[in-house]
Predict the 3D structure of the following.
Amino acid sequence: MSNYSLFIGSDISKSVIDVSFHYEGLACYLGQFANNENGYSAFVKALSKKVSIPKNEWFVCFENTGVYSKPILNWLIAKNIACREENALNISKSLGIRRGKDDKVDSLDICQFAYEKRDSIRPTILPEQHITRLKKLLSRRDFLVRQRQSLKVSLKEQDGFISAEILEDLQQGNDNLISTYDAEINNLDTKIERLIQSNEDLSKNDKLARSVKGIGPVTSAYIIATTHNFTIFDNPKKYACYCGVAPFPNSSGTRTGRKKVSHIANKKMKSLLSNCAMTAKNHDPELSKYYKRKIEDGKQKGIVINALKNKLINRVFAVIKRGTPYVQLMNYA
């Protein structure tokens, strides 16, 4: 049974928020307010005039819109008003087919979503400060890596279509920029390493995760960030699902298809685990033998690599739960 009596939905944009509330069986539109602390105070004041329900029974729901939704999330939690920063896809899927888009209607729909999910929806809990900082650093690193990769491939398509002299001049400029990105990425890696080492719990779990062959410092940092240092995922199967490597049934009626992974996933983690699986395949005797055996049995390479990803996740969660580094029990050489 829900502990909340008043369910509020808000559609968040860069400059404004549209707010609706569910009261006496109806979803009602409250109004539009500025997306800043003055606007949040104004919406709370306006709603308090409409209803007599105490604020500790309010529940505010809104979509995760990145940087636009973080200020109201932090403000509501600071004011001890329960709130949920919900995945936009969850709300969108629950609404069915829609035509057009309107912020007022969106706030009403989000409000209705929160009310309908009142028995299962849970408030968002902010991660600890060092996890938040780690996420910011990793996000910046990811951005720089993408920009560097764009530079590396930007001139390849022009090779053969422009003169060698012009291409050489452009390539020199590209190389200079790539060197700048390399230096900044290395600087971020140093900051990430220092941040992890500065916290005892993060440092301990980082060492445990990296004791698994194939898991490097970058992947370990991402795992710590996405699991909030292994506090929001309690088993490897859930995390495998989050990373998009858990196979799901693919059948209908009498047709039974091959199991498939879902495209709804953290694509960054999925990519990192792919690299880790390839490394583990080459350097871990047990996984190397497993890979060769499955390929000889006729399994497709992609399926076997995905199985290696799951094995790595299981190993990481096992060493974290046990509290001791991974140990190779047998010599498979």
